[in-house]
Amino acid sequence: MRFGILVNEGPFNHQASDSAYKFTEAVLRKGHEVYRVFFYYDGVNNANKLSEPPSDDRHIVKRWSELAKVHGLDLVVCVAAALRRGMKDELLAEGFRISGLGQLIEAGIQSDRLVMFGD
Amino acid sequence: MLHTVNKSPFERNAFKACLARAKEGSVIVLFEDAVYAVTRGTTLEKIAVRAAEKFHVFVLGPDLNARGYDWGQVVEGVTVVDYDDFVDIVVTHGPVTAWL
Amino acid sequence: MPEIEALENTSGVIKKFLYLNSKAPYGTVYALEVLEMILISAAFEQDVHVAFVDDGVYQIKKGQDTKGIEMKSFLPTYRALEGYDIEKLYVEKESMEERGLTVEDFIVPVTVVNRLTMSDLIHSMDVVLGG
Fold first, then answer.
1. A78 belongs to the catalytic site
2. Which residues lie across from B5 on neighbouring strands?
3. Nearest CA of chain B to the CA of C127: how many Å?
4. Domains of chain C, each with CATH number or no CATH
5. pLDDT tens for chain C, residues 1 to 131
6. Strand, helix or coil for residue A111
């Protein structure tokens, strides 16, 4: 089955990004397809390559980048939400791209399930 | 239709909002802080018990364990699941309405 | 109003989308960004439904004047929805009455439905988004 994942909160403040990551991992482990992971609202901050958590904590940004690399995931950051928050191309971690909100709607159309993680 | 809730019922009304619109036999997955909705011995235990009778209620084990509870401390009729089970439940019972 | 990109739904798939508004406006950003989702999905020619439950009903209350808080009022955008062929707007009766509101308090024409009908509506959808 094909999944779309929506992440509505930034890293660390809220568990949403962690839950979305664990869920996405499980989707892939179970042999399903992830059509796209879309980052909206403060969720765009999950793409910030300058994030530097202490070494004994999980690296939320890097973890998404690595999952994307291994599984060829499409990690899309909403352009309008990103611009509001100063999240520009030069700050994007590997594997993320900035695009329009239409990419979320398209993921809703193309996926069998759209699963939202937020606050 | 599958419903998800991720908020503590002591802080927000998401669980109540979900119960009000779920249908008899609906599937509900509780994760993050929503796991507190189905732990035993709270003042909301009766609501959890009734919910488990009317709906299929699942609670995410890793979130439960992280908060100091295990399967023996959830109300009867609620099933503890892991992330893989969560995916299976979404596959079987989706689309998903997330009550935030 | 968000910029509507030149979008085309080339797949030809039409799904039933529900935007479930359950949060009050202004205190958090959710209501505003759901509105942006609604407008974008119109460009994809999907079967769009918008529902207001719980504090979400406050989003369309008449008379919002945001000058004093320097935030953009949502009301003009809601009024514009009709122009995008988004006309399936539902308010849950119980949520409205709990808050002392009547259908006359809303800025846009809405269908008031009881909780059971709202539940049926939610359960008939392919994609539910919101906050």
1. yes
2. B30, B99
3. 6
4. 16-130 (3.40.1260.10)
5. 444 444 555 578 899 999 999 999 999 999 988 999 999 988 999 999 999 999 999 999 999 999 999 999 989 999 889 889 999 999 999 999 999 999 999 999 999 999 999 999 999 999 999 97
6. coil
Tokens linked to B49: 């018990």
Distance from C23 to chain B by nearest Cα, in Å?
9
- Determine contact, residues A113/A3, Cβ cutoff 8 Å: yes
Tell me the C-alpha distance between A35 and A31, whole Å.
13
End-to-end CA distance of chain B: 16
Place of tokens 């664990």: A22
Structural domain including B86 reads 2-99
CATH of the domain at B25: 3.40.1260.10
d(C-alpha C94, C-alpha C112), whole Å: 9
Residue recorded with tokens 């079987």: B92
A81 touching chain C per CB within 8 A: yes
Structural domains of chain A, with CATH: 2-117 (3.40.1260.10)
- Please report the ipTM that was assigned to this predicted complex: 0.97
Check CB contact under 8 Å for B96 and A1. Answer: no
Phi first, then psi: give them for residue B27, nearest 5 degrees. -100, 130
Helices (H) and strands (E) in chain A — how many of each?
4, 5
Distance CA A119, CA B98 (A): 10
| Domains contained in chain B, number | 1
Q: Please compute Rg for chain C using Cα positions.
A: 14
